[in-house]
């Protein structure tokens, strides 16, 4: 029991030190809107509070959230939990269901990983949030994007070009160049991190504009390169 408590304390300290994640809270309950963002703020997690399902659905389609908290008393809110896979950026977010005490005996609503009981008691809610700390840290690490401006060499099937990176995550990077970048174009990348670690990866263009800016998703990042990049990203979180 002592080890378990220490683990939660250590993990919550880690999230406070490293994290500036975001949570989406869907609720019209003033008590829920007051208590949960305050607790999340203590974990350095910013909260976007919305009061209607359509607004929540729109945000889930536009932005990435590490945590999604749904008040199931709100009419139609359960559909957000059930349909979470329809929002590609948020399929792996940590889902919390806020349910009335009378419904808690029925167990977790479909799609939820954790349950917070209403009326919300701060200490009980804090324990639930801390129990999810490990998952929240993992989710943030997967999506963390860091500003990075270094030269990068791109070799494609029919051309080679040089560019500058603008940011990077464990899953890909963004660049800017004087040449036009085409959607779905594939390149072998070669660049050096600020800590002098050189990386090579295969990548595909997943977005591009007319100003020479583009985003590339890593198709293959060798394990040593993956470890080196993750270590560098962790130092910047």
Describe the protein's topology:
Layout: H1 2-18, E1 21-26, H2 30-42, E2 45-50, H3 53-62, E3 67-71, H4 78-82, E4 94-100, H5 101-104, E5 114-118, H6 122-131, H7 133-143, E6 146-147, E7 151-155, E8 160-169, E9 172-176, E10 186-192, E11 198-208, E12 213-220, H8 223-236
Parallel strand pairs: 1-2, 1-3, 3-4, 4-5
Antiparallel strand pairs: 6-8, 7-8, 7-10, 8-9, 9-12, 10-11, 11-12
Helix pairs in contact: 1-7, 2-6
What does this structure look like?
- This protein has 237 residues and is of the alpha/beta class.
- The chain folds into two domains: 2-143, Rossmann fold (3-Layer(aba) Sandwich), CATH 3.40.50.2300; 146-236, Beta Barrel (Thrombin, subunit H).
- Helix content is 35%, strand content 32%.
- It is built from eight helices and twelve strands.
- The strands form two sheets. It has a six-stranded antiparallel beta barrel with strand order 7-8-9-12-11-10.
- Strand 4 (94-100), helix 5 (101-104) and strand 5 form a beta-alpha-beta unit.
- Helix 1 runs parallel beside helix 7 (133-143).
- The two termini are 30 Å apart.
